[in-house]
Amino acid sequence: MHFLPHYPAQLWPPAASAMAGEIDTIFAVWCVVLFMLVAPVFVFMAYCAVKYRAGRPADREHREARNIRIEMTWMIVPFLITLVFFFWAGTIYLQENNPPPNAMEITALGRQWMWKFQHPGGQAEINDLHVPVGVPIRVNIESQDVVHSLYIPALRLQEEAVPGRTTELWFKADRTGAYNLYCSELCGADHALMAGTLYVMSASGYQNWLKQAGATQTLAAAGKQLFDSYGCSGCHTPNSTVRAPSLAGLYGQVVPLQDGTTVVATDAYIRDSILEPKKQVVAGFKPVMPSFAGTIPDEDMQKIVAYVESLGGSQQTP
Ligand SMILES: [Cu+2]
Question: Fold for domain 1-50+99-216?
Answer without folding.
Answer: Immunoglobulin-like (2.60.40)
